[in-house]
């Protein structure tokens, strides 16, 4: 099957600065794919090349099997783009913004009217279609831009930081809409919000300094980081009393004590029964598995937080 996106040794130089450095990526069709990276990692540069707004210095990029260097017109018909800035026409109503986009894509009037009605309904904007975007909340404007990008039924939707600047409620609303349209197309999104990638994406690439650092499902990335399992044990008394017992277990990789709680990193999950056996007879109030966050994966791989 043709990949939705495929890049080979894709490189972009801005003078002496290498924004993309021999970047190789394959994104399969129909998936929600997330690209994460700290500021300046090269995410927007990659999106600009894939959406044919910019040419690479060297290397190749294919979208739906078409070379971006030779087929920009065809590719633009196959993709929808939600840029970082909302870029709505403030002198047109919400509906007119969508109508303009449909005309730019050469859609016949009857088809576009039906499609616009559907999208306004889907994105909860039917009641506000005659209003101007300036009167909308940030979340509503964002939903309108996503609706606009979907008018011509693209095969790939590019979302460049779709929820930056939105309040948590609007962010969750945009996530719900993105989930509701997924399945019918490939969605490629960049984000600074690890929770967003965790919530939405089936596969994630982490990049920094123009290079791909790692690629996989959220679960795979978390497992790659940790290898071992992390448990929290809450005792009836001070956890220090159990430090010696726990210290005797060779499969404990790390142990942190805090009050009546011990955070224990095991070499592998099979070690759990040995730990429970060693602690038998003592008052244990709770044993819980601590989930690793994507934030921890990100920091361990890039050495910095997403916003640094
Ligand atoms: N037109 C340009 N001219 C010169 N340098 C540029 C240009 N555009 C981007 N850069 C530089 O290239 C690098 C990659 O930038 P890019 O915008 O692709 O990163 P990003 O991952 O999208 O960052 P952010 O998360 O801040 O949007 C940065 O160091 C940036 O300063």
From TrEMBL:
| Gene Ontology terms: biological process | daunorubicin transport; doxorubicin transport
**Major place of residence:** membrane
Q: Write the protein's name.
A: ATP-binding cassette domain-containing protein
Q: Which UniProt keywords apply?
A: ATP-binding, Cell membrane, Membrane, Nodulation, Nucleotide-binding, Translocase, Transport
Superkingdom to which the source organism belongs:
Bacteria
Which terms does the record give in the GO molecular function aspect? Answer: ATP binding; ATP hydrolysis activity
Q: Does the keyword Secreted apply?
A: no
NCBIfam families cross-referenced by the UniProt entry = drrA
């Amino acid at each position: 099957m043709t990949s939705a996106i495929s890049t080979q040794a894709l490189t972009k130089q801005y003078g002496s600065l290498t924004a993309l450095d021999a970047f190789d990526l394959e994104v399969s069709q129909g998936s929600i794919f997330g690209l994460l990276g700290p500021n300046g990692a090269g995410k927007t540069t990659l999106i600009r090349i894939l959406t044919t707004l910019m040419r690479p210095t060297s290397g190749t990029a294919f979208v739906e099997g078409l070379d971006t260097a030779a087929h920009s017109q065809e590719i633009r018909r196959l993709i929808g783009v939600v840029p970082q800035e909302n870029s709505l026409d403030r002198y047109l109503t919400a509906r007119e913004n969508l109508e303009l986009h449909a005309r730019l894509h050469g859609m016949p009037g009857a088809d576009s009217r039906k499609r616009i009605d559907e999208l306004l309904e889907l994105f909860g904007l039917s009641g506000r279609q005659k209003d101007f975007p300036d009167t909308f909340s940030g979340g509503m404007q964002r939903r309108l831009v996503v609706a606009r990008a979907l008018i011509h039924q693209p095969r790939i939707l590019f979302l460049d930081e779709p929820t930056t600047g939105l309040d948590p409620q609007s962010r969750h609303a945009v996530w719900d809409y993105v989930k509701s349209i997924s399945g019918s197309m490939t969605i490629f999104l960049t984000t600074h919000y690890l929770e967003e990638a965790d919530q939405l994406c089936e596969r994630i690439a982490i990049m920094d300094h123009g290079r791909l650092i790692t690629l996989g499902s959220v679960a795979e990335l978390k497992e790659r980081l940790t290898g071992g399992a992390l448990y929290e044990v809450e005792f009836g008394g001070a956890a220090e009393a159990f430090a010696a017992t726990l210290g005797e277990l060779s499969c404990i990789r790390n142990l942190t004590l805090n009050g009546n709680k011990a955070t224990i990193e095991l070499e592998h999950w099979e070690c759990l029964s040995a730990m429970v056996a060693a602690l038998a007879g003592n008052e244990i109030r709770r044993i819980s598995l601590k989930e690793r966050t994507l934030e921890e994966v990100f920091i361990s791989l890039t050495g910095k937080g997403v916003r640094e």
